Amino acid sequence: MKGIRFARVFSISAVLLTPAIGFRPHNVLADSVPETVVRESQTVKDFFLRLYANKKAAIERKFKATYQGLVRQGLEDTEENKQRTMIALFFHDLTKSDGVFGNVYSFDAYQGITPQTMLDAIFSSPPTRVYARCDRLEMLFAGILKDVFGISARVVLIFSNHTSTEVPLSNGYLILDNSFDVVEFSRTRAKDKPPADGKYSIRRANRLATLDLSVVLDPQGVERVERAVQRYLAN
After folding, report:
1. In Å, what is the CA distance from 19 to each residue of 100, 176, 180, 182?
2. Whole-number Å distance between alpha carbons of 181 and 214
3. Dihedral of the alpha carbons of 58, 84, 75, 137, in degrees to the nearest 10
4. Mean of the per-residue pLDDT values for the chain?
5. CA distances (Å), origin 21, targets 27, 29, 108, 155, 157
6. Parallel, antiparallel, or unpaired: how do β-strands 130-132 and 103-105 relate?
7. Contact, 216 vs 124, CB < 8 A?
8. DSSP result, 67-93
9. DSSP secondary structure string, the chain?
10. Cβ–Cβ under 8 Å, residues 94 and 229
11. Do 8 and 96 form a contact (C-beta atoms < 8 A)?
12. By C-alpha distance, which of 160, 157, 99 is closest to 132?
């Protein structure tokens, strides 16, 4: 099953020292949008809820094999687990490095970047490519799950120098890594592994994993993202 790993077979600490790991240019959001395009003003919550509801059938088809693989690994096949997993897998593919939103993992890029500035860049006209450190990618992802869909999600310090996102399910946890496109099921909760110098606070990262749901999105940005998602689901 593409995009799913149940055991990490590489050293994250070694990979993190190499910022350029072969990400290809991502121009999926760079389409021009006719001036005649008009979109009703909507917030990010309005847009993401509508997007998921309208594309739910296509999303479930796209991730059917991945979900079945997680069930074979022990995930309890309930309707609630399935819905949480489908939402998480969909927005993981949008948010991840080189994903639909156009984010790119970069080891050093974090100054001034927050989940809100990342959202602003994604929906801006013209679109702005976002280079972000691992925790910023996870903070945006966790913020979408929590603030938009009410799904409890936690940014976890999976290694002393790398973060992932943990989503609780009925009999375990879904671990999603938006830097390296890893999805895995675990029966036990991940334990944070802070660095020896104690300078990094995972609690602070989780406090910052929030979105301003009152911000009205750029209608042209909304149209551009919709087109990108449509192409992504069609592949």
Report:
1. 20, 20, 12, 17
2. 30
3. 90
4. 85
5. 18, 22, 14, 23, 21
6. parallel
7. no
8. HHHHHHTT----HHHHHHHHHHHHHHH
9. -TT--SS--S-HHHHTT-S---PPP--TT-----TT------BHHHHHHHHHHHHHHHHHHHTHHHHHHHHHTT----HHHHHHHHHHHHHHHHHSTTSTT-EEE-SS--TT--HHHHHHHHTSSS---EEE-HHHHHHHHHHIIIIIH----EEEEEETTEEEEEEEETTEEEEEETTTTEEEEESSPPPP---TT----HHHHHHH----TTPBPPHHHHHHHHHHHHHHHH-
10. yes
11. no
12. 99
pLDDT band at 178 (very low <50, low <70, confident <90, very high): very high
Segment among 2-11, 50-59, 94-103, 152-161 with least mean pLDDT = 2-11
State both tokens at 232: 């992504």
Is the bond preceding residue 194 a cis peptide, omega within 30 degrees? no
Q: Model's pTM, two decimal places?
A: 0.84
Summarised one tens digit per residue, pLDDT across range 133-151 is 999 999 999 999 999 999 9
Cβ pair 158, 175 in contact under 8 A: yes
Residue type at 69 in one-letter notation: G
Are 97 and 137 contacting, i.e. CB atoms less than 8 angstroms apart? Answer: yes
Return the structure tokens found at 191.
């334990």
Could you tell me if 160 and 57 are in contact, meaning their C-beta atoms sit under 8 angstroms apart? no
List Cα–Cα distances, 54 to 21, 57, 94, 124, 230, in angstroms. Answer: 35, 8, 16, 23, 11
Which amino acid appears at position 185 of this protein? F
First to last CA, the chain: 16
pLDDT greater than 60 at residue 22: no
